[in-house]
Amino acid sequence: MNLSGFIKFREKSPLIIAVDVEPEISIEGLLEQAKNYVAGVKFGLPYILRKGASEIKRITYRYRDNYFFIADIKLADIGFVGGLMIDLVKEMGFNAFIAHGFIGLEGALKEIKKKADELGLFLFVVAAMSHPGAEEIFNRNFISIVETCKKIGIDGYVAPATLPRYIRELRDLNPNAVIISPGVGAQGARVGDGISSGATFEIVGRRITLSRDPLVTLRELMSIYKDRGVI
Amino acid sequence: MNLSGFIKFREKSPLIIAVDVEPEISIEGLLEQAKNYVAGVKFGLPYILRKGASEIKRITYRYRDNYFFIADIKLADIGFVGGLMIDLVKEMGFNAFIAHGFIGLEGALKEIKKKADELGLFLFVVAAMSHPGAEEIFNRNFISIVETCKKIGIDGYVAPATLPRYIRELRDLNPNAVIISPGVGAQGARVGDGISSGATFEIVGRRITLSRDPLVTLRELMSIYKDRGVI
């Protein structure tokens, strides 16, 4: 999937569901109900590992017209291992995946971006993280990471709704980027904080996956987005 | 497994095999042949994903008396996702796993270390990386990462044989640490470079896994270690 593919999905919804554990009403139950409210689904690595590659593939293929699928593998390894992971991401039917930018270009991100382009996968790079400890080391490298990414034309980023200044700065530096923003809900940011700071999509996880009636939860979220004027 | 467990395995061999792709003579063929020459086996994430959790578990249980097993998941996520991954690592029969240190303590490494201790898993943190691009951003945070890790009593590290100054510095800062060192072979460091710089174990991957006669390769490696006086 490419940039314009994401823009199209954005017209439907600003919401991505993060699935790290089996949803309360099952993954297929949730994906059936969420069709009209959600643009994309981000599968976390523990979920991918627990389900297994063939089951993930079955789900992504079944719902390929309804959602885009992001593999949140937080790739942070050398190019050789990255290449093997990207092959798997493609085989499992994902449209995009997430890598860390701090690994640098030579022998890492450059090879990862090249392979992503070859396979038609969209690459998101983590520009800053959402947890308190991220400010200790990781986020101090924010500018280096974003400048590194710009050198090879990366236009997908992950930046936290809990620390919206990074989203704003990223949007200034990359007006056309697709920015996806976690941290809403369990991690403390309010619904709409990411979008109103410049994110393209907000990622909500446990609030939806742990809900016994996700349709009610999704309608609540949409109503908040409307109240805040972000959709 | 704990620190003294690793010291015991070190008496057998300074060598860890990195398995990222299916070995030329099959994984079980290799593990049968390597018993007398190799201390541990590091499974890379692509290999774990491709094999599936139950198959990995079968292998680690079958060879649990012969090797220690490290899950090279390069964990670089928030504590919640980390916890889910560590449960899986334990279920698959691993003795240890690898996380990135740049994620910081609060809401990340602190929770990860606590959970590892609870489950009896040994935690290795990546202190520096081996590829050329690692020097662009990642390795500039080397001191911050090691100081962060010391605060919560982490005594396992990954540091590259291609850049031995990091191994030497790490050994000075943590005399008792278990340091495992990749980068030997395909990535350019010579056999013995890691150990002679202060690493506890060297990690060799493709040179062994892609060999059609790994027994010959392993004997060659042991002979080089003896010539260089590191065993």
Explain what the structure shows.
Two copies of one chain form a homodimer. Chain A has helices at residues 3-12, 27-33, 45-51, 53-62, 79-91, 105-119, 142-151, 164-173, 193-196, 206-209, 214-227; strands spanning 15-19, 40-44, 68-75, 96-100, 122-126, 156-158, 178-184, 201-204. With 231 residues, the first copy, chain A, is an alpha/beta fold. The first copy, chain A, has a single domain, classed as Alpha-Beta Barrel (TIM Barrel), CATH 3.20.20.70. An eight-stranded parallel beta barrel of chain A has the order 1-2-3-4-5-6-7-8, surrounded by five helices. The longest helix of chain A is centred in the middle third of the chain and has 15 residues, at 105-119. Chain A starts with a helix and ends with a helix. Chains A and B meet through helix 3, helix 5, helix 6 and helix 7 of A and helix 3, helix 5, helix 6 and helix 7 of B.
